[in-house]
Model the fold of this input.
Amino acid sequence: MTAPEPAPREPLRIGNASGFYGDRADALTEMLTGGPLDVLTGDYLAELTMLILGRDRLKDPARGYARTFLRQLETGLGLARDRGVTLVTNAGGLNPAALADAVRELSERVGVPARVAHVEGDDLLAARDWGEGVLTANAYLGGAGISACLRAGADVVVTGRVADASLVSGCAAAHFGWADDDWDRLAGAVVAGHVLECGTQATGGNYAFFVRDGIDVRHPGFPLAELAEDGSAVLTKHPGTGGAVTVGTVTAQLLYETAGPRYPGPDVTARLDSVRLVQAGTDRVRIEGVRGEPRPESLKVGLTRLGGYRNEVTFVLTGLDVPAKADLVREQMETALSRPGTRRPAQVDWSLARTDRADAAVEEEASALLRLVVRDPEESAVGRAVSGPAIELALASYPGFHVTAPPARGAPYGVFEAAYTDAESVPHVAVLPDGTRLDVSFPAAPRRQPPASPDDGGQSGPPDDASQPAPAPAPAPAPAPSPSTQEPPSEAPPPGAPATRRAPLGLVAGARSGDKGGSANIGVWAYGADPDLYAWLRETLTTDRLRVLLPEVRELSVTRHEFRNLAALNFVIDGILGEGVASQHRFDPQAKALGEWLRARHLDIPEVFLP
Done:
């Protein structure tokens, strides 16, 4: 007699209470008291965060973790234990063992018993010579350590640098007993984790259509996923909380900080072009159909180092003759920076933002901003040596001279870069609640032939610009009218084409942009996932058109990927952020508003699509 199939496990109800170091402090309490949960995660780490924690560790070797998590546990630990909710967080940063010890001390102090475990092995700083000045070197671990800690009965699991989505996939693998080669299920958990990892960005925060869709985002609730045993999930939020969960808000977060159809991670490679989203009720979006492939055989290693010192002076140019005023002060400053006996900074960049308008009724609206940014390995070359000469021009330059801030010293800036190392060479250790050290280091990547990948069928493919230029730093623009004020010329429609109207792209398309090292991505999707609108968007928004609309990227490598299931395109722009967010290479150093700039640009749009 054949044994009956075991009953499927109940869905895992997993929430998130932090999208970055500095996120809403009371979110952990809100999530624990707002409704039922099995697991609550917290994502505290980003490229810039690792640099901040690295500098903390230089001052005190006992530090290097996100101390805000401890403050949240003052009340949150008791709430979690009362409700039977397990806490899993990467707040351990560079020192997960120290944070785990601090959680145990807090547990004793507040009288709430808790079994605390942690995961280590990601810190590879001493493993090899990573180059001069490297401050942190951390591999992006997967979820195996988290799974081992949970199977051992941990109430709180602290990790260092794991892949953001592994906070979810590790919990799911432990709950459902998945194997390393359950690729489709793991991929479903990774996609759910990617949606959860940035907190309220999945519930209406930073959402392009918050006005058009009437979403109240004054205080959006944090998201949660009801993750099923087959890897599918329903994204939702606690009842009565602000914001909204719609196909649009989930699409926006799915496209955030991604590249092509394959989303490689330390647990699995998820096929983003297989994802299907279905509105399954108010504030409920089902994620289904996710396909997975074996994980890569290498792990990403995030490296941070101090890049040198920078300083900035912003000159305010008001009223008439803005280009001439800019030319004058630039010539005066260039002379001062190059005078005999003075060491010119290694890097000098100028940019002019034409924020002025004619016949303005408010002085600020009559003003443009001329920005001087200097960088050098030595602080002395960018401190008073730059701001001093700028202030000396106060009575001897253009009419209306003033600057936005007083003279300042040079400030250190950081650099992020990614390296890769053989996954089998990276230690991955789960330190269980009883102190047992369990080695869960990566075996060789599974060799079983993966299931057939989704038929691309136009969902993804090679870049539509086959002859990409090599990545290069953006040229420093001369102080002339900003190209962002110059709209692309209208194009006469062919005979019989639908009537068009000149209008902002953002009336019909959403966008979400973000940073990955020195690169940025812009995910663009058709409003309402309208297939006809997507067909127009796919035909119209080529890489060449993007370069026209966003002149800052015209000399950079741009790659376009297509996601038919999401009615979306994704553009990856290499080099636009220089050496990463901490280097503050451009006005918007993390490219968070790059997508909104694109949406504000005007195109000839078929009237049938316009609201």
